[in-house]
Amino acid sequence: MYGESKEALKQDTIRGFPGAFGDTPGLGVVCETSLGSRSVNFRVKHMRWGKPKKVLMEEVEYVTELGSGYGDYNKERGEISLRVPCPSSETPTATLYMKVGATLAGAGSGEAVSKLKNLAGYAARTLAQDVYKCKGADELPEGPVSIRRGEGSR
Question: d(Cα 69, Cα 143) in Å, to the nearest integer?
Answer without folding.
Answer: 13
